[in-house]
């Protein structure tokens, strides 16, 4: 391995470590499937709480109603700060249930976090309920390429996808496990390529799901990663891409400039169906300020 590749690998690893430290600080203690955690689903949580009346299960539509931007949250109440924003149309919390009420203009997207019994035991009930309330998309396995997250090899993930995701193919659009932008044979897009190989055409995938963390001054790296993921999706007969965690590290001015560059690029990219800044929570670099109002980043995002 060349010195340059070694440095790139080390930088990718350090960014992943930094990201998980940040997300741990941002997590709410009231959420049962928080980012970076996966614990038991409480009894009585079968129905995602919505502020709108339940409707019959929709047919697959191929896209969102509204803009591409989404809210990655732990505290559902904070999503109301973005109610009725035409550019924001969906939300998720790494769980199969909303764990609170969302504005009626937001589609809640359930996630099967991993393959532990605490995640799978109620998945069919939870996902079916969410679909009956209007969910049109389902996410699978959070960062299986990371040992501290879903931690699955490609074969395990493929078998799990076939067992738990395929049955919903006629009811919702199904996304691959969400992979990081880590570098290495068992990380990121390399892991995702192995997943497609393990599926051998048996996984009924509608979309690729990726996460990106990096420097806010390196928009070209982000755009290249998205383009490479889109190419991998196309190679495997998948026509669309979701970026369900996105964060550029740096000062507020650098993050603002990053968003000013990538938001119109993402909105105009036909390969991208949806994306979410990490995250809709209070704190530096988030969409909500520490005082509980929409931050400068949130104002630009919403």
Structural account:
The longest helix is centred in the first third of the chain and has 24 residues, at 3-26. The protein has a single domain (69-301), classed as Glycosidases (TIM Barrel), CATH 3.20.20.80. The model is unreliable at 1-11, 13-18, 20-32 and 36-62 (pLDDT under 50). It is built from 8 helices and 9 strands. Strands 3-2-1-9-8-7-6-5-4 form a 9-stranded parallel beta sheet, with helices on both faces. It is α/β, with parallel strands linked by helices and 302 residues long.
Please describe the topology of this protein:
Blueprint: H1 3-26, E1 69-73, E2 88-92, E3 107-108, E4 111-112, H2 117-120, H3 123-132, E5 137-142, H4 154-164, E6 173-179, H5 188-199, E7 207-215, H6 219-235, E8 241-249, H7 252-267, E9 272-280, H8 296-301
Helix pairs in contact: 4-5
Protein name: Asl1-like glycosyl hydrolase catalytic domain-containing protein
Keywords: Signal
Domain Asl1-like glycosyl hydrolase catalytic: 70-301
């Amino acid at each position: 391995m060349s010195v340059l590749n070694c440095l790139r690998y080390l930088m990718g690893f350090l960014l992943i470590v930094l990201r998980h430290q940040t997300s741990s600080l941002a997590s709410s203690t009231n959420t049962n499937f928080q980012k970076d955690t996966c614990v038991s689903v409480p009894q009585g949580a079968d129905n995602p709480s919505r502020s709108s009346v339940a409707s019959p299960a929709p047919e697959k539509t191929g896209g969102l109603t509204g803009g591409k931007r989404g809210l990655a949250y732990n505290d559902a109440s904070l999503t109301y700060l973005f109610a009725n924003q035409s550019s924001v149309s969906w939300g998720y919390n790494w769980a199969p249930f909303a764990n609170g009420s969302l504005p009626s203009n937001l589609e809640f997207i359930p996630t099967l976090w991993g393959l532990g019994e605490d995640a799978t035991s109620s998945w069919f009930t939870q996902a079916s309920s969410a679909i009956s309330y209007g969910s049109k998309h389902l996410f699978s396995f959070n960062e299986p390429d990371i040992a501290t997250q879903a931690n699955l090899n490609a074969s395990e993930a493929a078998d799990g996808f076939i067992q738990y995701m395929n049955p919903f193919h006629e009811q919702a659009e199904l996304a691959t496990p969400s992979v990081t932008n880590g570098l290495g044979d068992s990380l990121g897009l390399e892991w995702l390529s192995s997943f497609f190989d393990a599926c051998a055409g048996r996984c009924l995938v509608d979309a690729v799901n990726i996460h990106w963390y990096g420097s806010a001054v390196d928009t070209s790296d982000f755009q290249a990663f998205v383009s490479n993921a889109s190419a991998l999706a196309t190679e495997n007969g998948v026509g669309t891409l979701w970026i369900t965690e996105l964060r550029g590290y740096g000062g507020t001015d650098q993050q603002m400039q990053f968003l000013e560059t990538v938001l119109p690029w993402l909105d105009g990219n036909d390969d991208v169906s949806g994306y979410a800044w990490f995250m809709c929570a209070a704190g530096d670099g988030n969409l909500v300020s520490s005082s509980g109002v929409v931050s400068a980043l949130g104002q630009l995002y919403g």
